[in-house]
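Before relying on records like the one below, remember that each one covers exactly one chain. Contacts with other chains, cofactors or solvent are not represented anywhere in the record.
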Amino acid sequence: MSIKVKHRNFKPLMAPLFLLATGFMFGQQTVNDTVKQGTTKDIEEVVVIGYGKVKKSDLTGSVASVSAKELAATPAMNALQALQGRAAGLNIVTAGGAPGAGANVTIRGGASITQGTSPLYIVDGFQLDNALNVINPNDIESIDILKGPSAIAIYGARGSNGIIVIKTKTGKKGRTVINYNSFIMFDMLSKRLDMMSNAEQFVKYQYEFAQLQNKMTAWSAVYDNGLGLDTPGFYTGAFNRISNRYANAGALDWQEKMLGGTGMTQNQNVNFSTGNEKTQAFVSYNYNKQDGLLQNFSETRNSLRANITSELKKGLRVDFSSMFTSNSTNGGGAYSGMKKILLQPITGGTLFNDDQLFNTQTFPDYTSLDSGYDTENPFVETRASTQNSRSRAFVANLGLEVDFLKNFTFRTAGQYQFSNSKSQSFSDENSRAYLTDPVNTGINGSIGNSESYRYQITNTVTYNTTLGENHKINALAGQEVVYSASESNSMRLIKFPVPNFGLDDINNATVQDKSAGRSTPNSLLSYFGRVNYNYDDRYLLTGTLRYDGSSKFGPNKKWGLFPSFAAAWRVSQEGFWQDSKIANVINDLKFRYEYGVTGNNDIGSNLFVTNVVQTDYPINNTPGNPAYVPGTNLGNANLIWEESQNSNLGMDLAMFNNRIRLTAELYDNKVSGMLLNSLLPVSSGYSRQFQNIGSMTNQGMEFTLNTINFKTEGFRWSTDFNISSNKSKVLSLEQNQNTRTFGVGGNRTGTVTYYATVGEQLGDMYGYVYQGVYTTDDFLQNTDGTFGALKPGVVKPATGTAKPGDMKFAADNEKGDQFTRKMQKIGNGTPDFFGGMQNNFSYKGFDLGIFMKFSVGGDIYNATKHSLSPYALNQNIPAEFGSNYYRLIDPNTGQITNNIARLKELNPNEGDRTWSLSQVNSQNITYPSSYYVEDGSYLRIAQVTLGYSLEKEFIKHVGLTNARIYCTLNNLATITGYSGFDPEVSAASGVAVTPGYDGSAYPRSRSYVLGINLTF
């Protein structure tokens, strides 16, 4: 269910705040009455940080944590889905609802304009790219999001975009425990766009479009049995013929046909844990199969993980773990063709019956009538053009730990990763590719292969001691090397003789192009250290230093030094506090401050040298002589690390015996010396060069609130709430440059330009300001009753003269009387704030969890709506346009009317109408305009789970120690003013500068889940 709120400034945050306030009001008396019953979840939990762990009470840096229990409460295909909205400062936006679709993950907005903003993932001490999408959620023990400079500086160059540290489950001492978790999920389309669905209305719309575009012969061929235009009464009787023929005609519902079914997902997970005093082992297996709503879209995953830890003898420990994953995705993991479903004609008129319209590739017929028609039959196309990608990855970790001397521990650990992937596509004779060029392209396909490997070796020495009674010191020194390389090849094949054997018939196809390459190996050598000092659990100090050397920089610029410092004061441990009455209310109060520097080397290799490329040098006018010339990019031997200077001020508060816990953060991150691919003067002979130039800031605040609202012997209600706000601002760019532009989309797919402007926030959308349409009141009236020139003071169009029904854009010249196509700001895609709230209820064996997520502010450029504008004959359009466009055709004559009185009669409430179907508007609709910009605020009831755990006395007779059954509703309802499929849209290019772009993505589903958790 999507509940649309039309008010543009709707603030859905009011709903969770109201519920939260209600929780306090309802539970406050109980908190006061039961405060002496004992501590609940205390603050001595352990947080995993870089190369170690620390008690949360001793933490000096900004870290958000999510436990295995919280993840287990969310039946999800991957940890990305389970983590959405559950940690302050972490923003995860999936690219759509297709099986295998990716996601855009940022921590505190990211730290770059043109480079990637993805965080670093550390799994059990080692880097693992895209870990949240790779690791089985059931294998995760905890997730810690390192956000502050003290926490991330220990990773130096790799920590500039934040770090997500994942600790996986290990074996436990004691008897063997077997866990089996399984769920089955049924997906259904959560929302449909309201498209024109009445055949008579559709054909009349097509008539007006054809008449104004001079395509009446094509219209007649489809909808009027090819009746000649010179037939007496062709025009005057056209609307009567349409009514007689189509008044009771059926119409195809393409959304129902293509997406109206049910997709099914099944997930099976089993793990074993066993161990004695010396050795512990853990093994897990996960199988996941998701079938999408769209045919030929599915994903299958298998993962196997095993680890073993053993104390060989006192003071000597060894650990080994390995993981194998296999993933197969049909459909490519994304689907950008939603507009092709929505634009399909709902009736074939007299040319096609409904069965032919749905089951036949009608693309050639419609294209022959109107070259602008570009929407192939999606039902046929998804069968005719198939995509598949397969990937496999193997990871092995080995560590050895030795205690030596007194209070010293040495650890050496290594990891090896290997992955390979294969992608392939095939298009038969019913595909658009074949039909567009059957001779030169024909039946075609492609194959691509890639493989990569990485190894990492880390050596650390830690020292722990307590001096006297109150001085605790933890020191760490380490050295690390990371090396990675990859290679790939691909081949494009055309002119397969027959489709029967697919890519197996490769020997009989023609190779159109091929490529092969091997990346320049990347290596990072690092030295690092950290000291934690704790005085009497009151004063906490942390200092870190990392020295990184990267192969991506020149011989004299490889090294970067990244320090950080943090201090914390636990006021609640002071004697004056503990002796006061306030200690009975506020159990813990800690203030934190941290400052640090991190680096970024997220660029290609060998940019410090000028590469050469092969070309052809004719000798005596004879080509075919290979030669080498410098490339277009000039190398920069002085290229150095991009640097981020970060500060964070935090407060941790616990009240009423830890029944209420609050964490508040304020941060200010400044990036300088940004790695930008800058334009060079033509006189240099080169086009671009990577330079350290430009700077930006990220500033924001975060709040996390955990409460136990109600607690009795049989009933418990707790709430976890987080909210974040981040603003990115450009401070400087290239020399003499005030703006960089980033174009997204195209004329037919919906285009918008984002500006990164000095002094302004990132995410600014630029286009033209739409002000409705020209009405008859904007024109002078001629003596014959027709409209004439524009009245004085009315905005003039960019070129030519205006007519009633033409799109009107705001004046942008100095006089303020004419539109000149000067770009203006039309929105910003960055939300004002976002977050989530989880309410957990338990009563005896029952448990109920309700999770809501929200985003307030932030505009969306509705490129889906843009792409559904009236571009071509025979295509469908949104119902709101089809019932409200400005009419220029008089139904009585079947011809254009210029009479002011008649236009007023045909268009009641002229000023509220959308534009006409005139030729000039065919150009106007290709412009990016504020018409397509909408408020992206939403409040989503993302998940509701009801479970029941069977009585232990009952299940122990069948060998079970725990048995729980549950049902979950995902994506239950969304309150929003956004008219598209979903207000949760991903940045178009995966970077911070282009948020809020809705590019016709595969819609999210509403799902119903049935699951079971068993422990033997």
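The CA atoms of residues 441 and 494 lie 5 Å apart.
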